[in-house]
Design goal:
The protein is of the alpha+beta class. The chain has one domain: Nucleoside diphosphate kinase-like domain (Alpha-Beta Plaits, 2-Layer Sandwich), CATH 3.30.70.141. The chain is 28% helix and 31% strand. The protein contains 2 helices and 5 strands, in the order βαββαββ. A 5-stranded antiparallel beta sheet has the order 2-3-1-4-5, covered by helices on one side. Strand 4 and strand 5 form a beta hairpin. The longest helix has 13 residues.
């Protein structure tokens, strides 16, 4: 399954994004960043459907949170860096 992943530095930031997504009707989940894409020790990801990725990125920008990357998880389990 393909989905979007936004990598953030803390669970606090991920929870803030999750809360704002819920307000906008966007379903997301948070969790530890997979080792394949973790660039900074312990980081957390927000996982969303690809159709919601741009709106979620807008939320992250509005909250002025720094990301460690935005990725697309492909059907084969690999990740493509989007920004």
């Amino acid at each position: 399954m393909e989905y979007g992943v936004i990598v953030l530095s803390s669970v606090t930031y991920a929870k803030r994004v999750e809360k704002e997504c819920e307000k906008c009707g966007i379903t997301c989940t948070i969790g530890h960043t997979p080792a394949k894409i973790a660039q900074q020790g312990c980081s957390f990801m927000v996982k969303v459907a690809m159709r919601d990725l741009e709106n979620t990125r807008s939320i992250v920008n509005r909250l002025m949170l720094k990301t460690f990357g935005v990725y697309k998880r492909r059907r084969d389990g690999e990740y493509d860096l989007l920004g």
